[in-house]
Amino acid sequence: MADSPSLEPVYLLTGSDRPKIETALSRLRRHFEPEATEIVSAQEVSGAETAALCNAGSLFGDARLVLVEGVDGRRNNDGRLANGWKAADVKAIEDYLASPAPGSVLALVAEALKKDAPLLKACAKAGSVLAYEIPKRKLDGWIAERFKQAGVRAEPEACAALLELVGEDLHRL
Q: Cβ atoms within 10 A of the Cβ of 4, count?
């Protein structure tokens, strides 16, 4: 359950390796009843509203997971992250993390936070930051590793060809 010593009050999952982030979120969600999990978007819920969700508790037991996606924004037509949380939202989360609600776990998902971002610093201080990054120049190696995990060996040329055919969409790869 959420008050288990193995769970932190906050997790920040960030990086370009979306499949690994989804796996980590799936593992985290297993600690909670499905009814006690609230999934929201940072484009629809402010930092203050997120803190209120964490403080609200759950009708389905003592444990509650509040999962907020896109805290650094969503990619727009130009490929840029837009509509992420602003300084006031981050401040509300910092204030919440100073005294988090017992039994509540806050999971924040970001694609590309800077190493010195205040949200990253606050989450590292109060909980855990899980960074899953794939440098674009190492996608061939990432593809080969995924094949290896599936019990298959792929030649480097095959990995490069797959990347050329599919592109950089990690879900499709």
A: 9
Cα angle 60, 99, 106; round to 5: 50
Under the banding of pLDDT at 50, 70 and 90, the label for residue 54 is very high
| Strand 81-82 to 74-75 pairing | antiparallel
Answer with the residue of higher pLDDT: 3 or 26.
26
What does the H/E/C string look like for the chain? CCCCCCCCCEEEEECCCHHHHHHHHHHHHCCCCHHHEEEEECCCCCHHHHHHHHHHCCCCCCCEEEEEECCCCEECCCCCEECCCCHHHHHHHHHHHHCCCCCEEEEEEECCCCCCCHHHHHHHHHCEEEECCCCHHHHHHHHHHHHHHCCCCCCHHHHHHHHHHHCCCCCCC
Q: Which tens digits make up the pLDDT trace of 103-162?
A: 899 999 999 888 899 999 999 999 999 998 876 677 777 777 778 888 888 887 877 777
Q: Which residue has the higher pLDDT, 146 or 98?
A: 98
Residues in the chain: 173
Rounded to 5°, angle at Cα 50 from 40 and 13: 65
CB 107 within 8 A of CB 31: no
